[in-house]
Amino acid sequence: MTDALFLLVIVVGTALAFDFTNGFHDTANAMATTIATGALRPKAAVALSAVLNLVGAFLSIEVALTVSNKVVDIQGPDGAPLAALMGVPILTVVFAGLVGGILWNLLTWLLGLPSSSSHALFGGLIGSTIAALGLSGVKWAGVMKSVVIPAVAAPVVAGLVAAVGTWLIFRIVERVPEKRRNDGFRWGQIGSASLVSLAHGTNDAQKTMGVITLALIAYGSWTDTTAVPFWVKAACALAIAAGTYTGGWRIIRTLGKGLVEISPPQGMAAEAASAAIILSSSHLGMALSTTHVATGSILGTGVGRTGAEVRWAVAGRMALAWLITLPAAGAVGALCWFVANALGGLLGIGVVFALLVGASAWMYLHSKKSHVGHHNVNDEWVEVVLERAQAQAHRDIPQTLLDERPALIETPKNHSPHV
Amino acid sequence: MEILVESLKALWQVTLVGLLLGAGLPALFALGMRSLSTGRLDGPDGQHAPTSATTSPLARLVGYLCFGLVVAAALFGIVVIVFGKQLFG
Prior knowledge:
The complex is a heterodimer of chains A (419) and B (89).
Chain A (H helix, E strand, L loop, with lengths): L2 H34 L5 H18 L28 H23 L6 H17 L6 H33 L5 H42 L10 H17 L2 H10 L5 H18 L8 H15 L7 H32 L1 H23 L16 H11 L4 H5 L16
Chain B lengths: L1 H36 L19 H32 L1
């Protein structure tokens, strides 16, 4: 087996792993509100979302080969790799970038924070490109236009739309009996959340399909820049659906219970706002991240309902995570490229791959310490950080007791047997 | 600077479409529910009394029309997901 072929196999596997993390990281965007209000049981919600992601991925007819062209300069206008980078060089850049994206996705999942998978991938690619080609390999104007401005704008726009929607709904149904109202809006929630899932499958799986196709072209086993091999489409669809079904329960919990206490009318307002904005934004010249839109919408429903409590501290932690997504994933991407390049050949790639597997396993094992699953995803939200701060102020609880508790992810208070 | 102006222009449009569809459609859904609930009152035990007969035919028509429009918009959403690029570029 040549170095290039070995690298290709690793890149394809890593890309599918990224697609999987993309799926479970984003289940919450569509289904957190549906699960929180009891419109669907947790398992049913993730199953529905998985099926719709699968269908959505197969429905995609566009070839997203040029998606990374927005931020890095490693491909020509048609999506084919630049001649100078053909083969191992571009495969190494893509591989290191993917590792950066995956590790950031896993870390934010461990902390229970929603963060954009696309921005993590962009961050990783930007980092590895800087390492390989220097600062001039990055299209900084594109980074501004496709990453920075959308990240700031998405939650504001989505929040506004969802707040207006929530306010209108509560005015209109004021006199409708509560049970009837909630039952009706639960159906509305399921419908709008399904639309978000379908759009997610189409949009996000496309990106991984583009990355794998790029790798195949770089290796020389595919030449068509206007089509994706069927097996790539099928593999990406399955990976994102499997990820979605696994359910990033920690993130579902934060979005569904952590930000705002959500009632069915609010849930529908949030998902309808998300669906409308996600579907319209990409056609109006500014593609907004599903994660940022969904988070903004949920915040908006809290703002739009009179008397609702919004936990701004939780929102602040998310904003901080979004702010460092690009540099953090970029730093890992750059580091991986340096390691792979310094050791060279099979050894370099193997070592980086081992680092990826090791770090992933560590985070997975760490997550077991405060397990969040379908059984306790809806338990009452307790702000551990707040408690810790208060305890430190009073100094009446031994510090060692507090240190055993995770800092950011909230351990559910009561372990109810089933939701 | 050019990027900022361009972005603001795009954002303005996204906000308008978002308000129209993202807030308008749930409001229409709510209107449908209100129409189908007219004439129904909360019973003393919190349950609504089984008085569907008191919902006037007109109110029912308005209600179903609202739901119909919301469903049509959702179906249009699926069309956008699949054929968006061809339709809108």
